Amino acid sequence: MNRKAASNPAEKRISCLPLAMPISYQQLVNNWSVQLTQYESNEAQNLVNWLLEHHLGLRRVDMMHFLEENNLPQVLKADFEKLKSGMPIQYILGHGPFYGREFLVTTDTLIPRNETEELVHLIIKENPKPGLKILDVGTGTGCIPISLALDMNSPEVYALDISEKALKIASENAKNLHAKVIFSKCDILKKIPQVKELDILVSNPPYIPIEEKGQMHSNVLDHEPDLALFVSDEDPLIFYRIISEKGKKLLKPTGKIYFEINERFGKAVSELLLALGYQKVRIIKDLNGKDRMVAGQISL
Q: Taking the CB of residue 285, how many other CB atoms lie within 10 A of it?
């Protein structure tokens, strides 16, 4: 028997098994982003990059880094499945960026957005005076008052919300970011805040009429709190009206009021403020050219 000619069937089977081929970071981003069909291509790639950076410490500059897909952490794969289901990445990771800082985020709070950063920037830019007294109504994660407390000149900052769970998250964010903000629970529609002589009153209240639900993405509808998003079709300006009315009692004679608004309601909110006697009322557009903020002042 010629032993050299003999072969081992098991060895043949092993040699025919496909080898796991490493792929580049960029290939992985491309492969995963096309599975996020509910997002535009650029946004999908940004989300995958964010997820990989969180779990692996890798960024876009590492695009030539090679990975073994089979060796990726199970928690990363599980989070990607949540992302595919439509869950916002901020809720998956438990935090999100706002005005250069990371804020804790849960499904009890609205996800901080770029448009609200523009509101914060406007207030900081227009109010350089030290020691201003500020109240934020409907604080959510606390991103507005915390940012103002940290980036303005020694302000005295207060914030309120109707949700105890949101207030807990806001308080944790203030503690983590070393910001001095006094939080309290208050239903602005029923009570007047126990803070007087304000220099600035700011709010990003619920401003999406229920009739607009059909135009919204499922990742917002299925995960973000209705309490922070929606207002009745019959009275979509209710928060603006009530806050503005109470602002007349809370603000100093030269105090200012700032709102983030639904782009549809710029004219309506500005007319509301004028009817209540506010001066220097303005509609301010966001970086996308949409009416996004309204500001006014008690007196000239």
A: 13
145-185 pLDDT, tens digit per residue, is: 999 999 999 999 999 999 999 999 999 999 999 999 999 99
Distance of CA 257 to the CA centre of its chain: 22
194 contacts: CB under 8 Å, gap ≥ 6: 184
| Residue ranges of domains in the chain | 9-85, 108-297
Query: pLDDT tier at 5 (50, 70, 90 boundaries)?
Result: very low
Of 141, 130, 155, 71, nearest to 105 by C-alpha is 141
Q: Residues 76-83: contacts with CB within 8 Å, 24+ apart?
A: 76/51, 76/52, 79/51, 79/55, 80/32, 80/48, 80/51, 83/36, 83/47, 83/48, 83/51
Could you give the dihedral angle defined by the CA atoms of residues 205, 135, 194 and 177, in that order, rounded to the nearest 10 degrees?
100
Q: Model pTM?
A: 0.86
Beta bridge partners of 220: none
Question: Class of 108-297 per CATH?
Answer: alpha beta
If residue 259 lies in a helix (H) or strand (E), which one and from where to where? Answer: strand 251-260
